[in-house]
């Protein structure tokens, strides 16, 4: 008694149009990540610029009277908002790329993560400078 061989599970080759659609989606995710990076960099830069401006304008130990929130606190909030925005964008990008790579495992890796890590490190250094600089 002969048995017929069981079909093996093979992955069908992806046609060119589908492959290009995955590439366009990957590039769109990278552009979105770059927008998050641009926003975070703007917030971090603005927070640090406000801090340095008022540090130079008012002097190091002077504080404007009767303010609900001081210059340092405002600067810390803005820089921290930039860092949080960068973390949110990186998390979103990671989830998007993970789901896309589950459908098409041969996609190139994104290089925007390297820039994200650099801006994150810079943001943390600036936050520490604003918090601990007297």
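Sequence proposed for the structure above (134 residues):
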């Amino acid at each position: 008694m002969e048995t017929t061989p069981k079909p093996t599970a093979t992955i069908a080759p992806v046609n060119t149009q589908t492959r290009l659609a995955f590439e366009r989606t990957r590039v769109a995710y990278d552009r979105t990540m770059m927008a998050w990076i641009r926003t975070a960099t703007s917030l971090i830069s603005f927070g640090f610029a406000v801090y340095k401006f008022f540090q130079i304008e008012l002097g190091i130990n002077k504080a404007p009277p009767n303010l609900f929130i001081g210059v340092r606190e405002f600067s810390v909030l803005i820089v921290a908002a930039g860092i949080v925005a960068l973390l949110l964008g990186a998390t979103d990008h990671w989830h998007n790329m993970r789901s896309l790579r589950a459908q098409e495992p041969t996609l190139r890796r994104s290089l925007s993560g390297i820039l994200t890590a650099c801006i994150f490190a810079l943001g943390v250094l600036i936050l520490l400078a604003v918090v601990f600089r007297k």
